[in-house]
UniProtKB/TrEMBL annotation:
Identification of the protein by name: Tetrapyrrole methylase domain-containing protein
Record domain Tetrapyrrole methylase: where: 17-222
SUPFAM superfamilies, per the entry: Tetrapyrrole methylase
Organism: Dyella mobilis
Length: 275
């Protein structure tokens, strides 16, 4: 007799974890595979964008546990994320099939799903990440950007302030978590205009202050429309900005040909290949 992959030979079921993405827009982005992980789990944990989404999840599973109460004002987000990992692993070690549900893609700007998968595998449990439609996917569609045309860099906004990173202004630049930019403590739910001014100062090394940038929020409910605001870079500290918005800087300069490399390619392939 064969045993299913989650059962041991003496029929004691081994725990497992699947981290799945719901996509950004309630209902319409859920893949059949993500739904099946949710429905077949023993317990479902939910880190989603809206309590409406939790109510919708409860129609798919009777035991949906919200992860929202683990956040706290003045509590470092990293502490919350570590607690989530322990919570998931507690159920996995107890032999449960755990499904941890995240909005968007569970592996995009999300620490706990990557961490719990590593921990679970190191302890010999089955662990899987099921992708979802992220804010990144939505912005390509809503803003008509093809990352293959001019290139597209993605940065966590604070990382640009904390570390010396190289920005390429000939490509698109996508900045995540601008609403909490500069929060070294990871305790704040929002940072203010002084923090965003530092970001603008840094970006002004590569972009004119009058450069048009985009503040983008994709639809989270099917009745919503994407919100797209275009402002000048210098206005960024002074406009309202939520933590559910992403900032996009279109290219500010043209790509330059790499003449030396083109000459080497010509030597390899013959000049006629370039005419
Ligand atoms: C913790 S990350 C989560 C990203 C998510 N896992 C995904 O796949 O898109 C939070 C950041 O995602 C972006 N974000 C979240 N909701 C968004 C929305 N509705 N529209 C655009 N960007 C959003 C913002 O940059 C925000 O600071």
């Amino acid at each position: 007799m064969t045993t299913s992959s989650s059962e041991t030979s003496n029929n004691v079921r081994r725990g497992s974890i699947a981290c799945v993405g719901l996509g950004m827009t309630l209902g319409s982005h859920l893949t059949p595979l993500a739904r099946s992980y949710i429905e077949q789990a023993d317990v479902v944990f939910a880190a989603v964008s809206d309590s409406v989404v939790e109510v919708w999840l409860e129609r798919m599973h009777p035991d949906v546990r919200s992860l929202q109460p683990y956040y706290g004002d003045g509590k470092p987000r990293m502490k919350t994320y570590q607690e989530w990992v322990e919570l998931f692993m507690g159920e996995v070690r107890a032999g449960k099939r755990v499904c941890a549900v995240f909005y968007g893609h569970p592996g995009v700007f999300a620490w706990s799903p990557h961490k719990v998968i590593k921990v679970a595998r190191a302890e010999g449990f089955e662990a899987h990440m099921e992708p979802g439609i992220s804010a990144e996917d939505c912005l390509y569609a809503d803003l008509g950007i093809d990352p293959g045309r001019l290139g597209c860099q993605h940065f966590e906004a604070s990382q640009l302030l904390f570390f010396e990173r190289r920005i390429d202004p000939t490509a698109y630049l996508v900045l995540w978590q601008v609403g909490v930019v500069g929060d070294w403590s990871s305790k704040k739910l929002q940072t203010g205009s002084e923090h965003r001014q530092l970001l603008v100062d840094l970006l002004s090394n590569d972009y004119p202050l009058t450069h048009e940038i985009i503040i983008y929020r994709c639809a989270t409910l099917p009745i919503d429309k994407p919100q797209i605001r275009r402002i000048a870079l210098h206005e960024l500290p002074h406009v309202p900005l939520t933590t559910a918005e992403t900032v996009i800087l279109p290219p500010a300069a043209e790509m330059k040909q790499n003449v030396a490399m083109l000459e080497r390619l010509q030597a390899l392939e013959g000049a006629e290949a370039f005419t």
